[in-house]
Structure formats: structure tokens, C-alpha cells
Amino acid sequence: MTGNVRRFAAGVQALAEGTPGTRVEVLDLRKAVPSGNFLLMTYTFGSGGVPETTARFLAEHAAGLRGVVSSGSFHWGANFGRAGDHISERYGVPLVARINKSGTAADRQTVAAWLTEQCRNTLARPTGFEDMRSAYGTLD
Length: 140
Ligand SMILES: Cc1cc2nc3c(=O)[nH]c(=O)nc-3n(C[C@H](O)[C@H](O)[C@H](O)COP(=O)(O)O)c2cc1C
Fold this sequence. Notes:
Rossmann fold, five-stranded parallel β-sheet, 38% helix, 20% strand, binds flavin mononucleotide
């Protein structure tokens, strides 16, 4: 819609890649499907709902989903960023962050640290788990 999720993903990527051993690829889910584990970033739509494009993507490609970040707006009160709660509950993955619009520096830190931790865990495994990837879905 307005590029908030895209801006946040780019900011997190820039921050995470400053940490040695962390490689983050940002994919636009309208154009590409992640081949391994990934963090989903999505906006919230309707009354705290999961956007249709995000729901459709997850119905087919949730196997590698390891966490979710939801963007929303404080104006929506109790429904602020609720898409992330729905996805977290439905797929049993952590809500890594709930962000207002395109998020803050602290939000970027939180998510970059989570990605770095995931990469570390992946490297610690004895056999080839795929790199952690960051992906997002928007309608804009
Ligand atoms: C029609 C419409 C409905 C929305 N519904 C919600 C909502 O229920 N809860 C919420 O937190 N934000 C809601 N938002 C705000 C968006 O989720 C928020 O602006 C988000 O950052 C947009 O991300 P994008 O620019 O990447 O699409 C809504 C926005 C629009 C235009």
C-alpha cells in the first residue's frame, strides 16, 4: 500500500548485514517464494486482519515460516498489528515484532538481532540447513 513494510525490511537488512555471519535476503512475495526458512513481514488490514495476499501466500508456503513481523498503525487501537497475532497463533511461530508504520530504530534492532540469532543457530547445526531469509508481503 504505502511501502512501510518494504522500508522496514530494507532497514533491517542493512543493519543485520553489518553483523559478520548474518546474510539476509529480502524477497517481495508477489514475485518470489523463499526456498528455505524465512521471517515474514506483513501489514495489517481491515479490522486487525491478515491481508488477503499474505493469507494466500501462507496457505501454500508456510513450511519455512519461522517468525512474523506485523506492521500496523497505533490508530487501530486493540487491532494494532493484529495480523501478526493471527499468524503467530495459526502457524505456531513467534511474533518477533509489532511495528507502527515503518517502525523505529529499536524495532530494527530487535528484528536484526533475532535474524542474527537464527543465523547463528543455523550455523551451529551439523548439516546444511538453509540460510535464514527475510521476506515480506505487501499489496502496494
Ligand atoms: C484500509 C486500511 C485498513 C487498515 N487496517 C489496519 C488494522 O486493522 N490494524 C492496524 O494496525 N493497521 C491497519 N492499517 C494500517 C496499515 O497496516 C499500516 O499503515 C501499514 O504500515 C501499511 O504497510 P504497507 O505500507 O507496507 O502496506 C490499515 C490501513 C488501511 C489503508
